Amino acid sequence: MTVPTTFSEMFTFNSAVMGFGSDVWMEAVLDSFDSIVMNVANSYRLQEECDVLSIRLAKFNKGSIRLSAYKAVMLASLRSLVPKEWNSTYEVAWGWFWENVERMLQANLGRPAVMEIALTRFMNSLDDSTRDKVRRLIFVTFFQMAPAGQEMFKQSTTRLHFIADKVLEMTVDILRDPQRMCEDVSALGLRHVGYAPPTELFGPFVSSCIEVVRNLTQDEKLEDAFSWSLGLISRMLVRTILEGSTIVMKAININSSTQLKSAVDCAPRGKRAVWMLNITVGTQSISPLMWSIESGALDAAQGIIKDLLTVRADRDRYYYAAEELFTRHPDIVYRLCQEARSLVSHLLDGLIWRSRTTENGKRRVNYYIKHILVGEDGRLNDAMSWIADLGDPKLVRHPVLVLTSDIVWNGPAYFCFLTCKVWLVFTLVAFMTAQSILSMYGKNAHGFEVGNATREAQFALRLFVYLFCMGQLAIYHIRASAKAYKGKKVFKLCCLRVPEYLTAFQEWISLVQCIALIFMVSTCPKLYCMVHWHDQEDAFLGAEEIRITYSILSVTTMLIFFLRMTDFAVMNNTLSAYLIMAFSCLKEVFLFIVALFCVIFAFSASTLALFQSTPHFKDIPTAALSYLEMSFALFDPNEYEKIHGTVLIFILVVLFQICIFVFLLNLLIAQLCSVHRSMYDDIVGHARMQRIVTIYATLPYVAVPLLTKWIGSLKLDQKLEFGLGDVGLAGQGCPKTPSYTKQTTCCK
């Protein structure tokens, strides 16, 4: 048998021994006993706790409640827990304490049940018109009693009516379910701490509510029940607000980083983080940091983050609240990305420690990336992905993210990425062999395919691509689309709902390839000519009608294969940056081509309007083709002499070339230079973002045991030195990374 070591355990044991095990009401008293004892010196709080306890006791049969029995069990339990220290002085003190509590409980014992019935009957008797009248009169009366209250209630009439309804409901709910309502009222009070409401307005508000109810009824019991219930709620709210209104919260309310610093300077170093991360009232708590972020007090939030992530020394002990910050708010990076993007860089700056002293012109740097790298579940954190989603190339180049992404990439992500891409390379080789290599080696002088071995090998490779490449892509996109539609992760494109995953370049281009392969299967000449397999001439002639279509699809699929191979550029940031720059310029090239065709069409139509036809300008299509050849310097120079004979056409040709070569081409160059100039400073950041996206797309394919083993090998809990022999804090990601830089920061 386990020996009881706590008061609750000893009380339960003694109540069973003394024959009170069936008195369930004692458990309700025991639940509130700690709060009652801790607030015995505060008469107002003691009365509040006793009032709440009396409501809970009202749920039991009044005849079964014997408060003197609780005293006997209580004293017996205390004697058993501290037998050596216990004496008559303690006996008298605890006896006096319980007599006062018993007197307060006896004053209300049985009343809450009667009050609940009266209030419930009253609430049910209110019709819609009466309720609307009560809503309006509550605030009219309140504003007359306390005009200053108008500054606190600037919401819409609908919101004010909602508040009035909740006030009426809470007076009944606290009598029905006091335990839940105490939690809700405490949470409500803590939420209002951030708004800094004047507590002196609660009295007039309660009085106005009571005045309105008094005018609606002549029942004194109802009036007494309403005033007692609402008064209890008011006292709980005022207490919660006063206890939660710390000097830190007051500094946040005025969004002052200076006052915040003055406030936290009053805290001991060991409690400094608690003051800024947790305010507890009863069983409810609020985070000043999170409140400052949610309320938009970003100056105060920035001050809190900087203070938490400052290394402070006290003799041989260091204080650094990164562990407390990420323990209290594991999603702090996500919350900052969603609500306070400007603070993300300050958070990352705080995860770097730079030495004051130099060695060979450089300074030691420690990166505390444990919580950026690993989440609370011990697996890889999504922090880098959240930051990359912001699309800020400068932020992604922050040293913390550069180090973290390089560690993950050089760890499990790199090998897994190559493994995932092996299949793409293999299918490309098979497709290229079938479509480009064997098709050339298997032709005679007339261009017809010869050799059964060549045709069979080509047909086998095509079947392989159709079955395994196309099949794999089809299954993947069917599953991904079904998952997206089921999770409603779609976006509207014109009138269609398109899965969100197709916004990625590699995803939609692979879908296009899958569709192209499906059409290739349906137009494959070898499938059409299976019955003429050994008759080459008939086979060729029978497939002539679809060969052109198949060839176009084959070219399209081949190009898509190589476009998908561009994903390998992520392996090198320089190559990835170059590729991103090239894709960024495609928009300008597209606009140039559109403008070019518009100019060609305009000049083609204008040339035909001269009624001076030449072989190169006999109709609009022919004229457009001639102008297109001129644009790309493919027009035969000798043909210009023929055009020279027709002066007006020659003038149009000259104007066309001026428009193309002098204006549009130079405009394209200027646009490309402008794009390059605007992206040059951020292009490495874009490459880093692409790598982070690739990392998080690859890691789901890494085996969990392998990932766990790799995280353990980083030794994130190993403490780092601040200097020679000066052991500092844990949390650095990789001891092999460079640890010196010319930058510096402060340490207190």
TrEMBL record:
Localisation: Membrane
Limits of the Ion transport domain: 490-675
Membrane topology term: Multi-pass membrane protein
TM regions (residue ranges): 422-438, 459-478, 508-528, 548-569, 589-611, 647-672, 692-712
Cited Pfam families: Ion_trans
GO biological process, alphabetically ordered: calcium ion import across plasma membrane
Keywords: Membrane, Repeat, Transmembrane, Transmembrane helix
Main location: membrane
Cellular component annotations (GO), alphabetically ordered: plasma membrane
InterPro entries assigned: Globin-like_sf, Globin/Proto, Ion_trans_dom, TRPV
GO MF terms, alphabetically ordered: heme binding; monoatomic ion channel activity; oxygen binding
PANTHER family: INACTIVE, TRANSIENT RECEPTOR POTENTIAL ION CHANNEL PROTEIN
Name of the protein in its database record: Ion transport domain-containing protein
